[in-house]
Amino acid sequence: MNKKAIFLSALLIVALLLMPFSASASYTPPDSVPVRSQAVLMANVETGEIVYEKNADQKMYPASLTKVVTAMIALEEWGDRLDEQVTVDGALFDDLGWGYSNAGLKDGEVLTMRQLLYAMLIKSACEGSNVIADAVGGSVSDFVDKMNERVKELGCENTHFVNPHGLHDDDQYTTARDLYKIVQNAMKLPVFMEICSTARYRMPATNMNEERTLVTTNLLMDQATGGVKYYYSPARGIKTGYTPEAGRCLISTASQDGYTYLLITLGAPVEDENGEPITDMYNFMDAINLYEWALPNFQVKSLVDQQEPSGEVSIHLGEEKDSVLAYPGEDFSALVPKNIEKSSILLVPELPDTVDAPVKKGDKLGTAKLMLAGEELGTIDLVAGESVNRSEFQFYMEKINEIISSTWFKIAIVAVVGLIVVYAVIAVIVNQKRRKNKRVNRTRKM
């Protein structure tokens, strides 16, 4: 680790002691980690946890980050045809204007889809984007329709495209969070990261061009172009972007000690508050600052001791036992600062006062919230630590008592008593009539 990283790590530990933590919410880097980009989202690839976000849902212009979507759809639809040849149609360059990034493709040049993808993702070739879009979609406009349909399928709610290359259009926009969803999907595709992580690609000679070397626009990955200021050896991929309207943008990853982070930065300024050009490329500087903050200082840790009881529940009708201890039923791991230990985690049980026997070991009794410095990290199940049989004698005695205490039983008793009373009254009346009849009969006989 270099001196800058050590210094940032020390400052982070101090800052961590003064801030609330949550595995379900992003952290905040210390003031010593400047982040100048307007919108940012940084996530751990292994866990999917977002460690930092800034204006992640704000609509931004994507510039050439658009080409990630173009590559994603090309790989999804032509993944088994990457070595199929495509002939460049120069008419596809007409809407690009002047000064766009390109790989020097020529009208009538024959390349494979794989070579076109390298040209688009490494050299940020806008003309390559249109050639890919036309080949895959049948036309550029139909391909753009595919782009919008596909990102909606991925759950992107604030993204819209009008072209496959990213040259500015007021109606072409996205957010850091939507790009995160897109890149997560793209990274799963074979070849995507292989292409994006290539700093220099030797393009074979074609019918219109001699062999040439394509150099990445991502200065994090190429030491010769990035130099001491921008080269960052742990970085891999993914795509740069720039227009005056979008500012400097970057999607990248970096790995160290078994952890990989995906970072999206949008809108790094290109002018200062006085309108003077900024020569520093803040998209790369922001990335290095954030990686040197996150990579050394976060770790996935098990935060639950499954052997430690978290509460006790009374057992109703238990045989020989009238309570059972509740234990964490599962491990819980989260990406947290390295200085956080299990002892720092507070388990807040949510358990019923009583449960009915029988209870089997491992039965769910309730849940527990995992709290750290007042913030909820997650929820786990709490389960019975042992089995408790039901007392059959108590069970049947309770059933009898329930029957006796029930309203229907009381109604039935009242009804029976009523019937007995009615029967008794009727019997008395009948007996009286019989005695009267006997007296009458005796009188007649006399």
From TrEMBL:
InterPro entries: Beta-lactam/transpept-like, Peniciliin-bd_prot_C_sf, Peptidase_S11, Peptidase_S11_C, Peptidase_S11_C_sf, Peptidase_S11_N
Pathway, per record: Cell wall biogenesis; peptidoglycan biosynthesis
Lineage: superkingdom: Bacteria
Originating organism: Solibaculum intestinale
Keyword Transmembrane helix recorded: yes
Family: Belongs to the peptidase S11 family.
EC code(s) of this entry: 3.4.16.4
Peptidase S11 D-Ala-D-Ala carboxypeptidase A C-terminal domain segment(s): 298-390
Key words, A-Z: Carboxypeptidase, Cell shape, Cell wall biogenesis/degradation, Hydrolase, Membrane, Peptidoglycan synthesis, Protease, Signal, Transmembrane, Transmembrane helix
UniProt-listed SMART domains: PBP5_C
A GO MF label: carboxypeptidase activity
First-tier enzyme category under EC: hydrolase
Catalytic activity field: Preferential cleavage: (Ac)2-L-Lys-D-Ala-|-D-Ala. Also transpeptidation of peptidyl-alanyl moieties that are N-acyl substituents of D-alanine
Function description: Removes C-terminal D-alanyl residues from sugar-peptide cell wall precursors.
Pfam families referenced in this protein's UniProt entry, alphabetically: PBP5_C (PF07943), Peptidase_S11 (PF00768)
Protein name (record): serine-type D-Ala-D-Ala carboxypeptidase
Keyword Iron on entry: no
Transmembrane regions: 408-430
Record-linked PANTHER family: D-ALANYL-D-ALANINE CARBOXYPEPTIDASE, D-ALANYL-D-ALANINE ENDOPEPTIDASE
Record's signal peptide: 1-25
